[in-house]
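User: Structure with zinc ion, tokens only please.
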Amino acid sequence: MKKILIGTALILCVLTALVLLRTASYSAPPLAAVERASVELDRAQIARHLSEAIRFRTISSQLEEPQTQAQYEQFIAWLAATYPELHRALPPARLGRNPQRQYSLLFTWPGKNADLPPILLSAHYDVVPVIPGTEDEWQQPPYDGVVDDTHIWGRGALDDKSAAIALMETATQLLAQNFQPERTVYIALTHDEETGGEEGTAAIVEKLQQDGVKPAWSLDEGSFLLHGFIPGIDGPVASINVAEKGYMTVDLVARGQGGHSSMPPRDTAVDILAQALVNIHGAPLPSGLEGLSGEMFDAIAPHMPFGQRLLFANRWLFGGLIDSALEAQPGTAAMLHTTVAPTMLSASVKENVLPIEAVATINLRVHPRDHIEDIAQHLKSAINDDRVEVKLRRGQPASRVSSADAAGFKAIAEAAQKTYGPTIVAPGLTIAGTDSRRYETIADNSYRFNPMVVTREDTSGFHGTNERISIENMANATNFYRLLIEQAGAD
Ligand SMILES: [Zn+2]
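Assistant:
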């Protein structure tokens, strides 16, 4: 008995020593003391320009409507009038697959060295509509572009007119100093990202393809400097996303006998469908902190306080604990697996008529580890009922994973650190779709990052209410793009 006790104590001691040792070696070196580099900017003017841009209702889901088309035309005219030097020096090509709606703009800034592959910087200026019924919840009207002491308010302030305007400000400033980039810089302002980029972004990619342009890398929206999202980390984390999830929609069609509802069979189409949904709910797709999500936490966790660091340093022991903590929050859970969200249901058209068919629509966001066909197969096996058909409506696989070691990633990280000071940088995964999935077909690497700091509170503004951005962020974003364009040529 005594021997067993001593043995157990010994094993515990070794285990504890191992855990502590791994934790000690998992700590990060202090963040590199980067010299901050910024120039004097006319903040009031930048704020005013974004404010004016917000007033155009460039709502891509309403592009069929003549008044929306007029807003697009007016926005493009406003851009030309607001940034005349830029338009004179680098007249943009107007592009769009629909000849009547060539609202996407491509500025080409020729580099000194034609042998270097170019880079592509992009932002979209279309916005989503304000959700009907939420207008009153806005502290400032969504299309007035109100500027107060600290913020610019309105639809598009975060997503993504802010980036579009910061790019315009940067290019204007650099042109005023007769700057010429080392490698060619393309600046794309796209007009239909929120509806899939079918007309505008696609036309830009086609044009670049025709011209034989192969960017070394592209930079577009998809993440931010995240402040207060990760427990134990005080400052913002620059999450430069190197991949994005895919998109998949399936219909589950359950068939049953029709007839009068007074004499239902044991299983109606709705019962069958309901059981199928319950089965799918009970059989989640594989999940876990490995691959890209693991790399993200490996970049961040060494900066955490001892307790959390101990857990992440010993994932062989505490992996399950970490996974369940991350699974508990929808935001972090979505990074670990393919998400499955039933969104639409339909069955009989009359209360006393049995449906012959009941249909559930499920929207899935595909993790890079999963494949569309395998997911469909997984759903079929989970349902395990021949009376239910799984129909694929739409399937777009996850993007490629771009390199976090390539020059583009490093240039973006450095520009962020020179703008914001010592900052943790981590590669990440965008959990929704962006224009980058089109850019990755021509660029070696595609990065998803907006150079602004967002807090949890800010996130309700994305496609929601009270969207706003701080003037400070706008100045920093302009500074970031300047540093990026200046430095990107060198390596
Ligand atoms: Zn966006």
